[in-house]
Amino acid sequence: MIKQLTGANRAITVTLCLQMRRQISLCDLRLEGDNKTVLANHLESKKRKLGKLPPVYPNGWFALLESSQLGKGQVKHVAALGQNFAVFRTNNGTVRILDAYCPHLGANMAEGGRVKGDCLECPFHGWQFRGSDGQCDYIPYADKVPHVARTKTWKSCEANEIIFVWYHAEELEPHWQPQTNSHVSNRTWRYQGRNEFLINCHIQEVAENGADSAHLSAVHGPLIFTKIAHFFSAFARHSWTNVNWTPHKSFLESLNSKRTESERQDNENLRHRAYMTLRHRLVLFERFEVLQLDVNVQQIGPGYVELMMHSSLGSMCIFQTVTPMEPLLQKVTHILYSPPLLAPYASLLFLAECLMFERDVAIWNRKKFEKRPLLVKEDKSILAYRRWYAQFYSQHSPSYHSAIKSLQW
Predict the structure, then answer these.
(1) Rounded to whole angstroms, how far apart are CA atoms 90 and 117?
(2) Alpha-carbon distance 221 to 181, whole Å?
(3) Range 46-66 average pLDDT
(4) Residue-wise over 53-80: b if at least 16 C-beta within 10 A, else e?
(5) Are 304 and 178 in contact (CB under 8 A)?
(6) Average confidence (pLDDT) over 369-386
(7) What is the DSSP string of 109-164?
(8) What's the farthest any 2 CA atoms get from each other in the chain?
(9) Are residues 141 and 183 in the same domain?
(10) How far apart are CA 209 and CA 323, in angstroms?
(11) Cβ(340)–Cβ(316) under 8 Å?
(12) Quick check: 359 and 220 in contact, CB under 8 A?
């Protein structure tokens, strides 16, 4: 019978963390510096079968940059979602996003362009385009600016120090957007670090892991720290319990089956959300449990996730963004926030999350998408997830083959 340590749990947690910290050097787990691995994964992915894929660019808000990466008066070029974006920040701090290519002669305004007030100036001939509506505001050598001189604008928002763009294949206006966490906005929680991965898979498969509870024991059950696993794996493992995934509609029904009209409307407005809960424990000698961590996850749209983690020492959060850089190339970032005094412990949990995530990446990089998977009744959440995720596709959502053609000269 497994016993959960109570009175000594916090002391054991701290002791284990200190031992782990002695044997594991914390480092920046960003993509830079491991380009050989990225290239190897990319080349290997070319050999696999793809399967019959859903559309490759779903509708929703997607992260392009982190707020700290774009200062006032700066412009950055970001290629994602089959588009080329010129993301710039005006001198008053407002973020604007335009199509990167100048409609005059096709210069990339994000490469060498200059921010002038609310406008972005093309480096080729000095044409200036307003960030608010894309209209050309000034041509230095022309007496009159043609009314048709304009470029495409993209809706943007900033939340949790992340810059998002709204993408919709039918060009519909957004009816929801990511919200800023109060702990982040009032700065009671501080930025503690981030990581970045490039993954060769379809975007839908990344979030599908949340609904796939059976993979937790198989992939994430063995002890995480491989450098010392040869010593500890014989008597330690990770336990994942209280696992539940549900879309917003089911979530509301489970709370109150007798909903009012306003609640029904709220359900419609929040149908882009899904929820997951799980509990982690480290099991020692199949008898004791330590390092309990309760995780509440919100999937907000197709490419953004908030993970709230509650431990005996305090709470923290990780913001996960998933952005399609190419049809089958996802950039995934994790950004950690925690109370300042919890920083050492939060950093260790973040390292553990990174190492766990790498196990998923190894599978995503080599698997094919199964449109009609062979499932058992215990896999019912996967089908529920796919039905929920289908809302982010529409009539003109690009297929894999059409998206690939748009990338070729």
Answers:
(1) 6
(2) 31
(3) 91
(4) bbbbbbbbbbbbbbeeebeeeebbebeb
(5) yes
(6) 96
(7) TTTT-EEETTEEE-TTT--EEETTT-BEEE-TT-SS--TT-B--EE-EEEETTEEE
(8) 85
(9) no
(10) 16
(11) no
(12) yes
What's the CA gap between 312 and 299, in Å, rounded? 25
Task: Specify the pTM.
Answer: 0.88
Report the distance separating Cα 252 and Cα 203, nearest Å: 26
Q: CB atoms < 10 A from the CB of 30, how many?
A: 13
Query: Quick one: average pLDDT of 153-176?
Result: 98
Residue 137 pLDDT greater than 70, yes or no: yes
The CATH number linked to 121 is 2.102.10.10
Domain that holds residue 77: 60-167
User: Which of helix, strand or coil describes residue 221?
Assistant: coil
Q: Is 399 a domain residue?
A: no
Q: What is the pLDDT of residues 171-223, one digit of tens each?
A: 999 999 999 999 999 999 999 999 999 999 999 999 999 999 999 999 999 98
Q: Which of the listed residues 132, 167, 202 is the one where a domain comes to its end?
A: 167
